[in-house]
Amino acid sequence: MAAQGDFEAMERAWTRAVELAPENAAAWSNRGTARLQAGRWRDAYDDLSYALQLETRAFGGDNVADGVSALLLNQLANSEGALGRWEDAMQHYRMAAEDPEMESIAAANYALAAFETGRQQLAVREARQLLRRDPSFLDMRAALVAFLWAGGEPAAAEGEWEALQQANGGLGSALYGRASAVARVRNRWPPRATAALGAFLLLSDRGSAEGYDGQRHEYVFEAARAG
User: Fold this and answer.
1) Is the dihedral of CA 31, 36, 42, 46 positive or negative?
2) What separation in angstroms does the CA of 27 have from each of 21, 95, 143, 164?
3) What is the rounded distance in angstroms from the CA atom of residue 147 to the CA atom of residue 122?
4) 124 and 157 Cβ atoms separated by less than 8 Å
5) How far apart are CA 187 and CA 39, in angstroms?
6) How many domains does the chain have?
7) CA–CA dist 22, 29 (Å, integer)
8) Which candidate, 77, 106, 175, 226, has a CA 20 to 30 Å from the CA of 99?
9) Of 190, 217, 194, 197, whose CA–CA distance to 146 is shortest?
10) How many helices, marked H, and strands, marked E, lie in the chain?
């Protein structure tokens, strides 16, 4: 159903699973994920937060070390960010990153959340730490381009862009070329980072992107203009 993009069928199937096993955290988590994919942020948050309550009750704690699913924590953070609850989202991304299998994804989401909330230096620092561990993390290198451009570091942004285009034997340019980069990150990144990448490609201090509310939002990156 997910592969076919049939969110209504996914919803019905997981709702039936919840009805059959109302204390099963995975059923609630999976329905929440389906609702997240459908853009139903509040409903997704309700399901995912309840799944976390069930896991916390079962494991006696709310951390990965206690047995809580890092994927659940990451998805819960995604729903919180979509609702504008970025402080909660960052906390849960950080918790999810404690799982080695989820570390890179959750840490990347943490960096994007930091940028969304205007924490420029934190976003750049987190992105660079991720790239030191994994230089082939193409999505995070693209994000670093956006962070640096918005922060008034055009030369550094251009350097990271060139590194991205050359990465993995040209795979970087195939996936994140000038004509495809914004489309690749749209609806995956928070809107401010998407807008900043678009502004970089246009050599502009302004960018726009669709927000979680479905409306187009305009951003002015003053530092980029000053640079």
Assistant:
1) positive
2) 7, 21, 33, 39
3) 10
4) no
5) 10
6) 2
7) 11
8) 175
9) 197
10) 12, 2
User: Amino acid identity, residue 14?
Assistant: W
Q: Are residues 126 and 58 in the same domain?
A: no
The two structure tokens encoding residue 217: 């939002």
Q: Do 5 and 87 fall into the same domain?
A: yes
Structure letter (DSSP) for residue 75: H
Name the residue among 91, 141, 99 with its Cα closest to residue 117. Answer: 91
- How many angstroms separate the CA atoms of 212 and 73, rounded? 19
* Neighbouring C-beta atoms of residue 16, cutoff 10 Å: 12
Assigned domain for 110 exists = no
Could you read off the pLDDT of 55-90 as tens digits, one per residue? Answer: 999 999 999 999 999 999 999 999 999 999 999 999
> Which CATH number goes with the domain that contains 82?
1.25.40.10
Domain presence at residue 82: yes
- pLDDT band for position 198 (50/70/90)? very high
Tokens of 176: 């994140």
Tokens of 147: 């962070």
* Residues 166 and 135: beta-carbon distance below 8 Å: no
Three-state SS at 210: strand
Please answer whether residues 163 and 141 qualify as being in contact, where contact means their C-beta atoms are separated by less than 8 angstroms.
yes
